[in-house]
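Good morning N.,

You mentioned wanting to compare the apo and holo forms, so I went ahead and generated the holo version with zinc ion. This is what I fed in:
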Amino acid sequence: MHKVLARVWAAAAVSVALVGVAAAQAPAAAPFKVHDLKPNVYWVEGGGGNSGVIVGDKGVIVIDAKTTAAGGKELLDDIAKITPKPVTTVILTHSDGDHVNGLAAFPAGITIIAHENNKKEQEAAIAAGRGAPPPGHLPTQLATKNKESLKIDGVKVELLHWAPAHTSGDLVVYLPGQKIVFTGDIIAMQFADALIHLEKNGSSEGWIATTKGMTALNADQFVPGHGDVQKKDVLKKKLSDVEAKRAKIKDLVAQGKSLAEIRAAVGDPPPAPAGGRGPSFASFTEVVYRELTKKGS
Ligand SMILES: [Zn+2]
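and this is what came out, ligand included:
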C-alpha cells in the first residue's frame, strides 16, 4: 500500500515538474527556419505548412503563407533578412488554413495565384463561418488549366493540376530551371498514407495520378507541405505503397467487407478521438471505402 502511494506521489511530482517546464516554454514558439534549396530559392519551416521563397528580378514570390497573421509577419520578416525586394506574388498550393490564413499580414494589392477551386473553397469557408481566410486576401489570379507556364519576375514557374488530390483546388508549383517542386499537402511527411480531404472533394485516384505526374517531372528537390525536403525516390515509394493499399481496400470492398473489417485487415490504427485541435481527417482507408462504396451504389 505504502509503496504504491509513494509511487503515485513520485509520479505526481514528476508531472507537476513537467507541466511547469511546458508552461515556462509555451509562450516562446520556435522561430521559423529558413533553408536554402538552390540560388535564390528557399523553403521556410515552422508555423504550419511549409512555405517557399523565390527571389526574382525585382520582387519576391512566396508559396503558401503560414497559419496566422503573426506567422505571416514572421515569414515576411525572414524574407526581409534575405532580400530588400518586396513580396509581389503569393502562390497557394491549396485552401487549408495553415497555408492561407497568414496572408492577413501580407500587403494589400499583391498578386495571389491559386487554382479556381481553391478560391471556391475559401469562399465556401467564409460563407459557412469556417476557418478564417483573411478578408481582402482572396486569390486575384486563377489557374484553370492543367498546366500554366508563367514567367514571374524573370522566374519560370509551372502551375500544375492533374486532378483533385488532397483537395479539389491543388496546385503543384514546379520550377523547371531549378528542378524544384513544391507539392503542397499532396505530400505531408507526418502521414504514411495519402492525406485527402473528402469534404473539399479530394480524391485517392486523383492523388495517385498527381503523384505519378510529380515524379515524372525533371526535379531533384520536392518540398512537401509538411516535413523535410525529399528526393524523388521517397515520393515513388510513397506512391507504390498508396497504390498497393488502395488496391487491397478495393479487393476487400468487392468482397463486401465492412469498413471496420477493412481497417483491421489493412492494419490501420484506431481512428483519432474527436475533439482534438484542427480538422479531424478521415483515414485513407475510410476515404477509399467511401469513394468505392459510393460509386458502386
Ligand atoms: Zn492541407
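The chain has eight helices and twelve strands.

Happy to go through it together on a call whenever suits you.

Best,
F.
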